Amino acid sequence: MKRIPVKTMFLLTETGAAVSMLALSLLLFAVTGEDRVLLAGALLTACALIWLFLLTLFFARRLSRFTDDLCRTMDGMITGGGEPARADDSETIFARISCRLSRLYGILQENRRKVDAERRELQTLVSDISHQVKTPVANLKMVTDTLLAKPVTERERRDFLQGIRSQTDKLEFLVQSMGKASRLETGAITLEKKDGPLIDTLALACSGIVYAAEKKGISVEVRCPEDLRVSHDGKWTAEALFNLLDNAVKYTPEDGKISVSAEQWEMYVKLDVADTGRGIPESRQAAIFRRFYREEEVHDQPGVGLGLYLAREIVTRQGGYIKVVSEAGRGSTFSVFLPRR
Ligand code: ADP
C-alpha cells in the first residue's frame, strides 16, 4: 500500500466506485427490469465520477502547492535563509508540519551559531599560538644564523647558546601550559577533591617561588592556620596558587612584599595572595584572566599569558572562583575562594 502513488490510489478509488455503482445498477435492473433504474444508475455513476475527478484535481493542486512550499522552505533552511512561515491554523496537517519545521529551523540555527562560535574560537586560538611561537622561533633562527655565518669567540658562543636555551625553555613552557589548559578544558584531567590541610598545598606552591623572591629581595609572609582543612585537589590547587605567587614575584619590584593569608568562611575557604607590585588598572582586570592576555608593559618579563587562565580553570573546576582587587602602582590582591565541601 505504502508504495502505491497517490495518483494511482485516486484512480483506483474512482474506478472501484464506478464499477461497483454500475454493477449495482445492473443488478437492480436485472431484478426490476426497469429501464429507469439503469438510467438512474448511469447518471449516479457519472455524477460520482465527476465529483471524484474534481476532488482528485483539488487534492493534486493542494499537494503540489504544499510540496512546492515545503521544498522552498527547506531550500531556505539549507542555504541559511529566513525562518519558515508559521501557519496560523494549528489543526491542519500543513500547520503541524510547518510548526515542526519552525522548531527544526530554530535548532539548526542554534547549532550553526555554536559551530560559528567554535570556529571563531579555534581561529583565535591558532592565531594566538602562532603569535606566541613566532618570537622565540625568530630569535632561535637569528642566533643560529649568526652562529653559522661567522666564527665567534668562546664567550659569544656561550651567550648565544644561553639565548637558544632560554628561547627553547619558553617554547617548552608554552607547550606544557597549552597542554594543561587543553586537558583541563576537554576533561582529560579530572580534579580529585580530597579533604586535606591547606597549609601543605600552600607550602608546595610557595616552594616554587622562594628562590626567585629571594633573588629580588621580596619578603614572603604566609599566614595559614595549621588546622585549616578544605576539600580540594592538592596538586592542582598548588599549581593555581603557584601561578598567582609567580605573578606576584614577577610583577613586584625589588624589595617588595608578598603576603599570603588563608581564612575560613561559612561556605568557603578564602585565600589571599597580596603583593606591593605594579598593580592592574581596573579597565584591564577582567581581561587578565583571558587566554594569552598579557599587558603591554610586561613584555620584558617571562610569561605567555596562560597563568591566570589556568589558575581560574583549576579553581572553577573545583566549584570555587577567583577575584582580583588592584590599584595601578600600589599592588594587587588575588583572592581564591574554595568551597569547604
Ligand atoms: P603571564 O604572567 O604569563 O603574562 P598571566 O595569565 O599569569 O600571564 O597574567 C596575565 C597578565 O595579568 C600579566 O601579563 C600581567 O599583565 C597581569 N598580572 C597578573 N598578575 C599580576 C600581578 N600580581 N600584578 C600585576 N599584574 C599582574
Written description of the protein model:
The protein is α+β, with helices and mostly antiparallel strands and 341 residues long. It is built from eight helices and seven strands, in the order H-H-H-H-E-H-H-E-E-H-E-E-H-E-E. It has helices at 6-32, 35-78, 93-149, 154-186, 198-207, 210-215, 234-250, 307-316; strands spanning 194-197, 219-223, 229-232, 257-264, 268-275, 321-327, 331-339. The strands form two sheets. Strands 2-4-5-7-6 form a five-stranded mixed sheet. Strand 4 (257-264) and strand 5 form a beta hairpin. Helix 4 (154-186) runs parallel beside helix 8 (307-316), helix 5 crosses helix 7 and helix 7 (234-250) packs antiparallel against helix 8 (307-316). The longest helix has 57 residues, at 93-149. The protein is elongated. The mean pLDDT is 90. Adenosine-5'-diphosphate is lined by residues 243, 247-248, 251, 275, 277-280, 288, 293-295, 298, 303-309, 332.
